[in-house]
Specification:
This protein is of the alpha+beta class and 334 residues long. The protein is 24% helix and 34% strand.
Length: 334
């Protein structure tokens, strides 16, 4: 005897005992005790007992179950057979119903395959797009997420899901910074209002079960902005390929992207000055002897910079300091 225990009613069912017949109508009760009707179109016996294959009379969808309880002992969600006045459908009607259900299942399978194929095409475009826009020294991405509330306050069930993601820009560090998020909020029309400083929109839920740092009115509905760390470049590209494959989900302005350094550079002996971004320059090389002078000039040492695709320590300066920097480097080269 194979025994199955119902999770909802706590009853025990012997699946070696057949409880309904083919073409018999079964009554189902779902969440909220909503009632629906099914018909048994096939009964299969396996090593674990009987399996009943059914068709939903309303949705024309297939389903199956090992447990059907008598209606006289109804206890909640589940499938039941009328053990007092059993109801049957005409066998020919069931055949027609099965053909409809098979046609619907086939159409759904084709639609799913088409959607999957289109999804792969979108992801292929997204992969190439991300390869071209991710700065070499990016350690995190700033994203906007549209949240949809799926809570049920009557049962104290609070949850939301992200229904759209938009890439706003990249960051060279992993530290959470609301000002950084505000700086990029204007890149996207839906989050532009978040660029103005408002302490009520700064959420710090950096605790177990919290949603981390995010900028926005609510994590349950509307748009929020947050930072996601890039642990592995290839993994990041794969995870965000579908998002990036849709042009409307890329809202990056030239000034908000941490650009990779360009070929515009000059070498002076052991030093190399690089145009690192639109607003900064960097100097690489053996700078120990002049580190105090570089610091006095307003430079900031960063061991996580990138040079020629490789991580390399260097000093970063505002673009306005470039003439003085070149003069300093040239003086120390003589």
């Amino acid at each position: 005897m194979t025994r199955l225990v119902s999770l909802f009613g706590g009853t025990v069912t012997d699946t070696e005992i057949q409880v309904v017949k083919e073409n018999q109508v079964v009554i189902g009760y779902g969440a909220g005790m909503n009632q629906y009707r099914l018909v048994v179109y096939k009964i299969e016996h396996t090593k674990n007992g009987y399996i009943y294959h059914l068709i939903n009379l309303d949705t024309k969808e297939f389903t199956s179950t090992e447990i059907i309880n008598p209606l006289s002992r109804k206890f909640g969600i589940g499938k039941y057979f009328d053990d007092v006045n059993p109801e049957f459908m005409d066998a020919f009607e069931v055949v027609i119903l099965r053909q409809e259900a098979e046609g619907k299942a086939h159409a759904k399978a084709e639609a799913d395959n088409k959607e999957q194929y289109c999804g792969e095409e979108i992801k292929a475009v997204g992969r190439e797009c991300l390869k071209g826009i991710i700065p070499d020294d990016a350690q995190a991405v700033i994203i906007a997420c549209e949240r949809e509330d799926r809570s049920n306050p009557y049962t104290d069930y609070f949850v939301a899901s992200t229904i759209r993601t938009v890439i706003l820009g990249f960051s060279t560090h992993t530290k959470n910074n609301f000002q950084e998020m505000r700086n990029l909020a204007g890149n996207f029309t839906e989050t532009a209002y978040l660029k103005e400083k408002n302490g009520e929109y700064e959420n710090r839920e950096n605790y177990t079960g919290g949603s981390g740092y995010y900028l926005g009115e609510s994590k349950y509905h509307g748009w929020i902005i947050k930072k996601a760390q890039i642990y592995d470049r290839k993994r990041f590209i794969e995870d965000y390929a579908y998002v990036a494959g849709q042009e409307q989900n890329i809202c990056i302005s030239r000034s908000s992207t941490v650009a990779t350094h360009t070929p515009n550079h000059s070498a002076t002996g052991n030093f190399t000055i690089v145009s690192y971004s639109e607003k900064s320059v960097a100097v690489f090389g053996d700078t120990k002897a002049i580190k105090e002078q570089l610091a006095a000039l307003g430079g900031r040492f960063n061991k996580y910079l990138t040079q020629n695709g490789q991580k390399s320590a260097g000093w970063v300066f505002p673009k306005s300091k470039e003439p003085e920097l070149r003069q300093l480097v040239n003086l120390n080269h003589k």
